[in-house]
Each structure stands twice: as C-alpha cells, then as structure tokens.
Amino acid sequence: MIVIEETITGSPLRSMFREEESEEEPKLKYERLSNGVTEILQKDAASCMIVHDKFLALGTHYGKVYLLDVQGNITQKFDVSPVKINQISLDESGEHMGVCSEDGKVQVFGLYSGEEFHETFDCPIKIIAVHPHFVRSSCKQFVTGGKKLLLFERSWMNRWKSCVLHEGEGNIRSVKWRGHLIAWANNMGVKIFDITSKQRITNVPRDDVSLRPDMYPCSLCWKDNVTLIIGWGASVKICSVKERHASEMRDLPSRYVEIVSQFETEFYISGLAPLCDQLVVLSYVKEISEKTEREYCARPRLDIIQPLPETCEEISSDALTVRGFQENECRDYHLEYSEGESLFYIVSPRDVVVAKERDQDDHIDWLLEKKKYEEALMAAEISQRNIKRHKILDIGLAYINHLVERGEYDIAARKCQKILGKNAALWEYEVYKFKEIGQLKVSKPHLPFSDPHLTSLGPSDLPGFATLIREWPGDLYNNSVIVQAVRDHLKKDSQNKTLLKTLAELYTYDKNYGNALEIYLTLRHKDVFQLIHKHNLFSSIKDKIVLLMDFDSEIKKVVEELEDRPELQHVYLHKLFKRDHHKGQRYHEKQISLYAEYDRPNLLPFLRDSTHCPLEKALEICQQRNFVEETVYLLSRMGNSRSALKMIMEELHDVDKAIEFAKEQDDGELWEDLILYSIDKPPFITGLLNNIGTHVDPILLIHRIKEGMEIPNLRDSLVKILQDYNLQILLREGCKKILVADSLSLLKKMHRTQMKGVLVDEENICESCLSPILPSDAAKPFSVVVFHCRHMFHKECLPVPSMNSAAQFCNICSAKNRGPGSAILEMKK
C-alpha cells in the first residue's frame, strides 16, 4: 500500500509517495484541485460534484453551484438554495443541468439557453438525473427522488407532466441514467427501469441490511450501456443487462439482469468507477486505535482491483491524506470520473483530489528515482514518441554520471558510444570529465577518432575545447582535421579570440610557425616573443612588423627584442610613429639615426611632425651627413633663419626655394638679405620680380638694379608686377563696396527694429518703483518712458537729465556701454 501525503500544507497538492511495504510502482498520480476550489472550500463545504469533458460542476452545503474549468478556476456561479445541494446532473452535451437540494427545490435549466423547470416539493429531494440526450426535443425527461421516484416529461404544449416510477420502499438515495436505462437505489435494493418499454426489469436486493442506508449509501456506476456496477457497504456486484429470448417472454420484461461478478471488499465503499476491465474503488476506512481501542476514521483508500467471478485481485492501493479526513463519514466521500481522459475526482467536504493514470513520463520518473537508469533509458527509447517531459539524451547522461559515481568507468565509457553518438560537444565534455578523475585511458578506446565534428561546438563549449587542445596530448586527435574544423568555425565568427588562440596552438604543434606568429601578433599575445626567440622567427616578422604596434604596453620590450636587427627596429618605430606621434616619443632621438641610415626620404617629414626629438642632436647628425634640406629646416626651426636662407642660396642655388622660405618666415630682414644676395645675379632678380609683389614693395628691388644689367624676361616680370598691383586695387575696392553695403543694410535693419511699437500692458512694472506701469484708473493722465532695451519707467521715476546732456538713458543699462537702449520711446495720455 502507498500513502499519499501532502508535502506543503495549504498549497496545491504535489503528492509524494512513501512506500511502506513494497517496491511496486504506483498506478495513479494525484494532484489537489486548487485555484477557485481552494477559495470555495475555505468558506463552504463540498456536497456533490459532476464531471463533464468540458467542465466541472461543484455543489456545496450552502446551496451554491459552481462551474469550474479543469484547473479548478471558477467560470460561473449559481445561488440555488440556502441549504445543501444534494445532487447535480448533466446531459451528455453539457448544455443542460439538473440540481436538487435539501429544501425540496428542483431546477432543470439550460446553461446556454433560456429554458427552465423550477419546482419546490414538500420533502427533501435527494437525487436527480436528466436524460443523457436532454438536448433533443424528444428526450426532455428527468427523474427526481425523495420518498418516491418521479419521471418528468415535457408534453407537446411545453407543459411538464410527472408520473411515479416507484415508491414505498424508503428514500431514493442514488440514481444513474445511461441510454434507455435508469438505475436507482432505495432502502431495499437497486432497481433498473427501461424507459422505452416503461418496465422495471430487475430488483437487486442489498446484502448487509444492518448498515444504515443514509450513512452507507449505495454507489452506482454504468460501465457501458448494459453493464451496471453496484457498490454497497463492503459488497460489489457487476450486473449485465441482457435481452430475453422471445420464447421466454410470456408476461416478463424483454430484458433481464445477470450478476456476472460478486465479491466482498475489505472496507466500506464510497464510490466506484471503471478503468478498462478493472475497477477503481474509493473506500471509507475505520481502524481501531491501539491506545484507546476505539474506532477512528482513517485515511480513505483508492484501490484498483481486477474483478473475478467470485472474488477480486488488488492491483494497487493508495491511502489519501485529504483535508479533514478525521471527521468524515462514508457518505461524505464521492468518486466522480471523466470517461474520455481516465481522470478520477475524489470529493470530500474540504478537499477535491484528482487522480490520473501515470503515463510513460511518470514511469520514467519512478525508474530514475529508484536509480534504475538502464531500464529508464530503455523505456524512453521504446516510447520516445509518447514521452513529453524526458529526453533520451538527458536520461543517458544521468546514467553515465551514475556509473562514474559508482566507479564503473569502463561501462560508463562504453555507454558513451551509444548515448553520445556523434555529438562532439558532449564527447569533449565527457572526456574532459574522465581526464579530471584520472580515467582518460579508459575512455580513449571508445573515442570517435574517425569523425570529430568540431563544427557542432557552440560558444559555451569553446573554453572547454580550448582547454582540451592545450592539455590533451597531440597524438590523441587528428591535428589537420581539427585545424580545418576550427577554420570553418572561424568563417562564422572570425573575431573569436578563444578559437584564434586555439588555432595558433594547433599551428605551433604542426610546426606551422608563420601562421601561428601572425595569429599571436593579431591577438597581441604575450607569448609572441617567446615564439620568435624559440624558433628564430626574425625573418618571418619583417612583413608583419606592423602588427607589433598593437602591443602598446610592450613597446619597450619590442624595441629591445629588435636591438640586434636595427633595420627591423626602424620599420617598427616608423610604423608606430605613423600611427601615433606620441606613443614612441622616448625613441625619437634614436629614430633620427635610424632614418638617416635606412630611410632618408622620411627623415624630413619625421623632423617636421615630431615634437619630441632633440633639435641639436638632429642638426649635428644632418650636418655630419651633409643633409642640406634637413639642415635648413632645423636651422629655421631653431630660429636661425638667416643661416638657413644663406645655406639655401649658397648650397642649393634655388631661388624659388629661397623665396618660398622667405614667404614662410614673413620677416623683412630676410627679404632684405635675399635682395642683397640676388642683386648681382640676373636669374635671382627675375625670380624675385615674379614673386615679390605681394610681400615687398617692388620699387625697393627695381631701384637697386644696376643700369645696363641684362635681366631675362624683364618685360614679362614688370607686366606681372603691374597686374598684381591692379588686382590688389580691385580687391580693395570690392571689399570697400561690400563693407558699405553691409553697413547700410544693418543700419536700416536697426532703424526698422527701433521704429517698431512696444506692447505695454498690466503685467509690466516700473523698473524703479516696481509698481504696475499702467495706473489702476485709466481715466487719469500718465506718462510712461520705454527704452529700446524694453525696460519701462514712470516718467516721474526717472532722474532729471543733466544740463550737459539732455538725452536720457536706461538706469539699468547705463552701467553697460550705451547701445540701442540709450534711445527712448515716450508714451503719454
């Protein structure tokens, strides 16, 4: 027997099974019906219930009927009576409901239509049953039972008429209508009535007449249209309705009943329900206390039994911990069921528990709980289309973990082949786990070397994969296949640093140092210099030197590593300078010599762009190597412009460069030196005449030219001077016209602005006395002064103008320069 206990008091039932006697798997699982039902039963008590495939109907002791969904949520409420609801009945369509109560009220009504029957009898009505096909117009029938069983039918004029089907044997306490047969129970036994032939076809007497029928009521259940199951006291009878042969008819009904099975149970029956060819029995249990030797109400039991002709076989038995079971009687329990889904509802005054058949997922749960992993895996494989909550892979992984925990490493490794298949990510995880526990040799014979699909790795697997590549011996896997797989993965995620580092390690193991070096340089990895020295890769980094610039924090180390290769050192520092003029500033002095030795064309640009190289050192090196252009630049930068100009004229003999240098320096003394040097050199004079016009007065040069000196292209030079002069005159006149036009436009704009009116209303105040600018009495004369700065004053609040200046100024703005606000607008009335 299995006891069902509630794990969390007051919450929806999540049942736990405590095995007391056997290791047998339970047949049913249980769940407390909660939500709206919990709210109802906190204030009221359940008296009856009916189950339909679409909804549930619950009656209470306070005369309420609630419609519920299968989760127990309230969808509709009916206030039928102030007293207990005795029974609820539904037709097969679920569209019509019949309700009877302890005060004699009977109601039959449509849930979705307006038709209704309402009657109040002078005695309590214990039972009601509507025709299963009540929705049809030809089947508008129902029966009620109190002291007698009444059949109500609607006539062709929509009037209800009644007839007595049975009376005189005590109260009718149970009724079930199936097809054309009505079964009911009174104090004497069970009767079956054929509604088509209007004949009672049997009477099944009750066995134990010592039991009070009101305390131990009869339970009726139709298994199908011709099989009735009767439970009363501790007795169960299975009755089959059969057709009588024509030769046996005479004055007998056309049908008769045969009892095909009859047996006794251990406890009193509170409810019955069919389950395939078995029975579900709800039993009321009384036990004797060992301490007081008195009877007490124990937990009710829900048994599954296999009926036999004269006995039964118990399949399973569960003791249910329902709320308030200690105070309940046999009549307080009801068992209702849903035929379509094999759901069984155990109804008690304070609780409703749902029992359902355990499915394959529940079977696997039980096997896993009992650590029967191999059986669970086999069950999942057989029923993989039917299981919903479990996955074969998850069960298999749990099985492997179980074997590892028990130390059965060889079996666990063998199971990996079947369970993991070709899932590379899981193989890597499991093998890494074997490595951690020192059992890598055990797993090695079972590894899928022939088909390592690295492309199945996801981002979460990459750190573990990188660890495996770093720690596993290289002969454990096919290096070339793994390299190709990593490269394929990088096509989808080219910036993944973990994969790039792993690929570099694979290249290093494969002695492909060039590709490994490039990846390390790209990643700015600290091991790059170790790799260069270990494998003498200096020749390989010449075309990759630019990648070394990314080692911002390693500049000193890079320069030191390249000290023996100054040409590479220069390439690295040059690329670094091009990227950022300030990163390698401490090496700018060193770069002067490197540029002079290996890259003179870039020396002058370096001197121009660098703000950190020592000029004296640079000048010394350039003078030693006779670098004229660089020396000229350094002399001018150091402030010795005259020496620089002299060097241009004497060393380079380039008048255009001399003139350009004089223009850059914009120094009158330099122009004077240039003129003095050029005065006896006709080509220099021509160059000066062509370029001097916009910087120095050409007359100064022309007056110094000796008479009779032949100057090339003198005429063209003079014409250009005159053209430049005319152009300057035109530019000045144009600028003057623009200036005058702009001044006039702005003056007109200012005049228009100052001529505009200014709004003065009640919200404005005098800036001197801070009272409203307009008087409260508009009939009185007043004077207001408004300045262009929009400050307003009463005229009497302004100071009297001085004798020296009659103009008035805004007191507030007078501290500032007197601009547009100095003028005033005066308003008088």
Automatic annotation (TrEMBL):
One of its GO terms (cellular component) is late endosome membrane. It is found in: Endosome membrane; Late endosome membrane; Early endosome membrane; Lysosome membrane. One of its GO terms (molecular function) is identical protein binding. CHCR repeats lie at residues 543-687. It comes from the Eukaryota. It comes from Propithecus coquereli. Its main location: membrane. SMART domains: CLH. InterPro entries: Beta-prop_Vps41, Clathrin_H-chain/VPS_repeat, TPR-like_helical_dom_sf, Vps41, Vps41/Vps8, WD40/YVTN_repeat-like_dom_sf, WD40_repeat_dom_sf, Znf_RING. Plays a role in vesicle-mediated protein trafficking to lysosomal compartments including the endocytic membrane transport pathways. Residues 766-814 form the RING-type domain. The lineage of its organism: Eukaryota, Metazoa, Chordata, Craniata, Vertebrata. It is a peripheral membrane protein. Keywords: Cytoplasmic vesicle, Endosome, Golgi apparatus, Lysosome, Metal-binding, Protein transport, Transport, Zinc, Zinc-finger. Belongs to the VPS41 family. Pfam families: Beta-prop_Vps41, TPR_Vps41, zf-RING_Vps41. This is Vacuolar protein sorting-associated protein 41 homolog. Transmembrane segments: none annotated.
